[in-house]
Amino acid sequence: MSTNQPLLDYSPLQEDQLLEFGVNPSIHAMCTGPVPWIGVKVDFIDGNYKGEYGVVRGVDHYKTDIEKKSGLMLTVERYTFAALGSNRLVKVDYNNVRYHKTKLFLCNVYQPSKKQSFYLPNSLSEDESQTSSVPSDASTPMPSTPMVSTPMPTEWEKWTIFMGPWSATYDYSPQLPMPSMFRSPSPPAPSSLLLPPAEPLEENIFGNAWILHPGLTGIEIAVDLKPDTSLGSLGKKSQVYVKRFPDSNGIFQLMSGQTIVPWQLVIPFHDHPKPATEKRLMVVARNLLPHIGKLVRQIHHFYKNKRTEKNHLLLLTMVECPGLAEEIGHECLEMHPNDLEFVKETPAERKFSKGLLRDLRKEYSYSPVETRPRMTDSNGILTF
């Protein structure tokens, strides 16, 4: 029907129907006006879904005597990448979520109106009362003399609008002084004092020593080795896997089996992942720093802007608990083959993963291979 009326208003239940279906009369109170926060994006800050985010799809009120419970149960659609390609609806307490990318409760951002007072949480927590944008003493009289001033931003504005010193996430550590147009520039240093530009250090973990990145600790990665007599026949006839881990003295070493491998001899594996057909387990090893160390598998592929092999990228899903207990993670990434390296796995584990991802890959197989820009945010996460 196109009446836009709640079902209970359009066709009220009779007494016998209320008894038969166990409908609580208080449900009517939830339908007398718009339900707050529908469609608002929130972050999970506690529970099984901590670190994820989603959108509010429903709000229910319940009675509770537990102080930590708000009395409000939110139905949230998780923004997660599931095996069937759909998002999941979960129920969480109001106190376990915050407004997206802030530490603010939903009431601090969208205070329920008088009509929505049924959905007010039982009590404000300390955090909520501190982040409330309402002044603590609203009865304080204003001065009679008009004042011209810039109002300070509220907590909500600090989290969502402002940048720089007024931002809630501003870093107050010592910074370099900003240049001033009223300050004369410093005289140039004598040529004898000028130093030649520093050459990049080989110890830079984001350069040639990528294998030493802390995110790769404990992961057996396939690599090639430069010829060296100290390694004997290692790497000459078979694939080499190296792993970074601390020794008994707390010093990190690269090991292949029982052999210590100097990091200077490690070079990326010659066999790069194939965007269209790759099924092996991989790890993000370079370039996108927030994702280094994440284990991923290919689910589809595309061309970035131009249909050339150089622009052929992989669409990946993160995986957790690699092995025969492997699970599909909650992130979808877009990566160039050069950013990835292969991880050691058994044939049984690879066979298990093929079954795990079969439905997901099949769903993408119906889509054509696109030529498009990347669809990732500044952190490299796919946005839908």
Can you describe what's shown?
Residues 121-138 have a biased composition (Polar residues). Residues 121-149 are annotated as: Disordered. Residues 139-149 have a biased composition (Low complexity). The longest helix is centred in the last third of the chain and has 19 residues, at 347-365. This protein has helices at 7-10, 15-21, 27-30, 106-109, 126-131, 155-160, 347-365; strands at residues 41-44, 53-61, 72-78, 88-93, 97-99, 221-225, 240-246, 252-256, 259-260, 266-268, 282-284, 295-304, 312-320, 327-335, 340-342, 371-372. Strand 12 and strand 13 (312-320) form a beta hairpin. The chain is built from seven helices and 16 strands. The chain is elongated, with a radius of gyration of 29 Å. It is α+β, with helices and mostly antiparallel strands. The strands form three sheets. Strands 11, 12, 13, 14, 15 and 16 form a six-stranded mixed beta sheet that branches. A five-stranded antiparallel beta sheet has the order 4-3-2-1-5, with no helix packed on it. It has a five-stranded antiparallel beta sheet with strand order 9-8-7-6-10, with no helix packed on it. Among the domains are: 33-131, SH3 type barrels; 210-268; 282-372, no CATH class.
Précis, in short:
The protein is α+β, with helices and mostly antiparallel strands.
Q: What's the end-to-end separation, in Å? A: 30 Å
- Rg result: 29 Å
Main sheet, how many strands, which sense, barrel?
6 strands, mixed
Which of globular, elongated, flat, extended, rod-shaped describes the shape? Answer: elongated
CATH topology of one domain: SH3 type barrels
Uncertain ranges = 22-33, 128-145, 178-183, 191-205
Mean pLDDT: 74
Strand content: 15-25%
Helical residues, percent: 10-25%
User: What would you call the structural class?
Assistant: alpha+beta
The number of helical runs is 7
The CATH architecture designation of one domain is Roll
